[in-house]
């Protein structure tokens, strides 16, 4: 087995609280920062991490030339298997229109018309775009098929691209369908057709999509088939989706744009993550929710892109981090944690999102003296090198 040491790291973010010092002692305490650090990798896994002066010998050495090293970003919410383009809808919105769930149906038509190769080609190029911006894990949802065969196809294609596959047959009721009959289809034959390839079940619980009782039925059907629940809720208005998600033990409730005080208290008293998607507010001109309010209440927050052709077509976690800092009241340390370890925990993963012994060596070198530059230098390509387990 070959070991590799990455040495001359100016600042290493491990996200391992063991390196954090007394909690609250510094803004980045939770990030487990080490200055003048080294990292040893064996078999694609972190074998040692600590101060450079104490680094053990290794077979090979790489030089980080004083750069900042962080865990790869975990983008825990995306819809990147789709056909078509909705730039005209974006343009109309930027000319005074508003975002509505119904736009999803135009992507459904374009997705059904696309070949497997076209869908995979587009998704692979988005994954390459994500990786060049530091993302090393991405969750992918179905939801632009909305028939048994089309949803099965999307879930199967997504499974070729990631381990984090989410069945979102309940994205919107397809044009011309009866809502209750469609919910029966989703909870019956569609679930049968996708269960083998999906880890998660998701529902868009919102006006114009699925109400809270339909959402409950769908999530419970998924849970009974061994899928784990997560959901889209409170994107366009407050609703009962957050309370439902918490009561079902959802790993994450995503968007959380319109939260009541009760929602915040429920999230804070649970292990359910609030996944904030600041690119959506940016791209729809909706108000940004406050990450500060959630964190101060004690809720766990993740940040993701929601990369999709309708509400937000960015693949950039650094962009979302900069927005979370500027627009959601989060500190640079909180935003980085939420985009790495937070995303991993929102996917219930302990092997990613941090750099501690045994974790996957998904590592990003930033051409910057600190992760603070992710917000301080918005829009600047700071990602210098990205390595996942296979690259060492
Ligand atoms: O997360 N909200 C539901 N689904 C996506 C948008 C999908 C679309 O507009 O195509 C979202 O925002
Ligand atoms: Fe989404």
Automatic annotation (TrEMBL):
Question: Mind listing the UniProt keywords for this protein, alphabetically?
Answer: Cytoplasm, Histidine metabolism, Hydrolase, Iron, Metal-binding, Zinc
Free-text cofactor note: Binds 1 zinc or iron ion per subunit.
Presence of the UniProt keyword Cytoplasm in the record: yes
Which parts of the sequence belong to the Amidohydrolase-related domain? Answer: 68-367
InterPro entries, per this entry?
A: Amidohydro-rel, HutI, Metal-dep_hydrolase_composite, Metal_Hydrolase
Answer yes or no on keyword rRNA processing.
no
Q: Which residues bind N-formimidoyl-L-glutamate?
A: 144, 308, 310
Q: Which domain of life is it from?
A: Bacteria
Tell me the compartments it is located in: Cytoplasm
In which broad location class does this protein mainly occur, judging by the first location in its UniProt entry?
A: cytoplasm
According to UniProt, this protein's pathway is: Amino-acid degradation; L-histidine degradation into L-glutamate; N-formimidoyl-L-glutamate from L-histidine: step 3/3
Q: Which GO terms describe its molecular function?
A: imidazolonepropionase activity; iron ion binding; zinc ion binding
In this chain, Zn(2+) is annotated as bound at 77, 79, 232, 306
Q: Which residues bind 4-imidazolone-5-propanoate?
A: 86, 144, 171, 235, 311
Transmembrane feature ranges = none
User: What's its top-level EC category?
Assistant: hydrolase
Which SUPFAM superfamilies would you find in this protein's record? Answer: Composite domain of metallo-dependent hydrolases (SSF51338), Metallo-dependent hydrolases (SSF51556)
For this record, the Gene Ontology CC terms, alphabetical, are:
cytoplasm
Cofactor(s) it depends on: Zn(2+); Fe(3+)
The similarity annotation says: Belongs to the metallo-dependent hydrolases superfamily. HutI family.
Free-text function comment from the UniProt entry: Catalyzes the hydrolytic cleavage of the carbon-nitrogen bond in imidazolone-5-propanoate to yield N-formimidoyl-L-glutamate. It is the third step in the universal histidine degradation pathway.
Matching PANTHER family: IMIDAZOLONEPROPIONASE, IMIDAZOLONEPROPIONASE-RELATED
Tell me what this protein is called: Imidazolonepropionase
Chain's gene name: hutI
């Amino acid at each position: 087995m070959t070991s590799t040491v990455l040495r001359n790291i100016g600042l290493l973010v491990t996200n391992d609280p063991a390196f954090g010092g007394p909690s609250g002692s510094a803004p980045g305490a939770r990030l487990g920062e080490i200055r003048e650090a080294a990292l040893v990798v064996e078999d694609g896994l972190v074998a040692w991490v600590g101060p450079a002066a104490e680094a053990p010998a290794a077979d090979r050495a790489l030089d980080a030339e004083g750069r900042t090293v962080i865990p790869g970003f975990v983008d825990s919410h995306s819809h990147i298997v789709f056909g078509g383009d909705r730039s005209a809808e974006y343009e109309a919105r930027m000319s005074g229109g508003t975002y509505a769930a119904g736009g999803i149906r135009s992507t459904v038509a374009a997705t059904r018309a696309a070949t497997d190769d076209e869908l995979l080609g587009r998704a692979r190029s988005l994954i390459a775009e994500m990786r060049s911006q530091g993302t090393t894990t991405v969750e992918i949802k179905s939801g632009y098929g909305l028939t048994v065969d089309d949803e099965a196809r999307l879930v199967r294609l997504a499974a070729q691209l990631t381990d984090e596959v989410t069945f979102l047959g309940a994205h919107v009721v397809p044009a011309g369908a009866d809502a209750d009959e469609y919910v029966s289809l989703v909870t019956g034959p569609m679930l049968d057709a996708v269960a083998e390839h999906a880890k998660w079940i998701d529902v868009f619980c919102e006006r114009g999509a699925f109400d809270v009782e339909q959402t409950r039925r769908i999530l419970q059907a998924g849970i009974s088939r061994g899928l784990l629940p997560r959901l889209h809720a409170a994107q366009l208005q407050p609703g009962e989706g957050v309370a439902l998600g918490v009561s079902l033990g959802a790993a994450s409730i995503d968007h959380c744009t319109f939260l009541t005080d009760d929602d915040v208290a429920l999230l804070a008293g649970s292990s359910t993550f609030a996944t904030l998607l600041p690119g959506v507010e940016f791209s729809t001109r909706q108000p940004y929710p406050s990450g500060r309010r959630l964190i101060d209440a004690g809720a766990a927050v993740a940040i993701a892109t929601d990369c999709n052709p309708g509400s937000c077509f960015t693949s950039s976690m650094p962009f979302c981090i900069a927005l979370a800092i500027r627009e959601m009241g989060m500190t640079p340390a909180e935003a980085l944690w939420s985009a790495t370890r937070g995303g991993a925990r929102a996917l219930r993963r302990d092997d990613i999102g941090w750099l501690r012994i045994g974790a996957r060596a998904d590592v990003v070198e930033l051409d910057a003296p600190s992760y603070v530059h992710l917000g301080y230098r918005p829009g600047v390509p700071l990602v210098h090198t990205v390595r996942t387990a296979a690259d060492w």
